[in-house]
Amino acid sequence: QKAIHADPRHAPAYAGLAESSTFDYPSRETMPRAKAAALKAIELNPRLAEAHAALGLVHTFWEWDWAAADRSFQQALALNAGNAEIHQYYSQHLSAAGRFGEAIAEARRALEMDPLSPRLSGQYARVLYLARRSDDAIAQHRMAPHDRVRVHHAAGAEPRPVLDDRGRMHAGAR
Question: Running DSSP on this structure, what letter comes out for residue 172?
Fold first, then answer.
């Protein structure tokens, strides 16, 4: 908000507001604000990948418009294929759309770009779990070094126990 107030033509500030607004629980307050900020960022700079990705998150988790979300993420990746966060967001969309094979590939790609990221490691494990690959999800959480797990827990993303397909309960991380 401060950056927008300081320079109302600074597209990255709007993209950042859009992205951060999608982190909140989707509501009638947060998601329209996220969409408006993403559209403003795109208006100011149509080549800003992060703005297209934020719009894709709105299409996915608020409007449930898979086709529009796919277009937004494809545009974001065309503009900046080297951004691990965009691959992670696209993985979230693909997972929500039930396209688990593609979601796993995108989550893996994101993690390969930033292998020390606890958030990307957690997303990869989450997608594996949603794809009913419980053993792989558990193994992914166990592979995380303890320091990364602690940071991930501090960020509020504590791995939860996993009930696998055979009815066994496992801790997501030890």
Answer: S
Tokens of 107: 């989550």
Question: Helix/strand/coil (H, E, C) string of 39-98?
Answer: HHHHHHCCCCHHHHHHHHHHHHHCCCCHHHHHHHHHHHHHHCCCCHHHHHHHHHHHHHCC
Cβ(96)–Cβ(62) under 8 Å?
A: no
Q: What is the pLDDT of residues 81-138, one digit of tens each?
A: 999 999 999 999 999 999 999 999 999 999 999 998 888 998 999 999 999 998 898 8
Give the DSSP letter string of 140-159: HHHHS-HHHHHHHHHTT-PP
Provide the β-strand partners of residue 169. Answer: 163
d(CA 114, CA 110): 6
Residue 156 or residue 125, greater confidence: 125
Q: Which of 89, 99, 121 is nearest to 108 (CA)?
A: 121
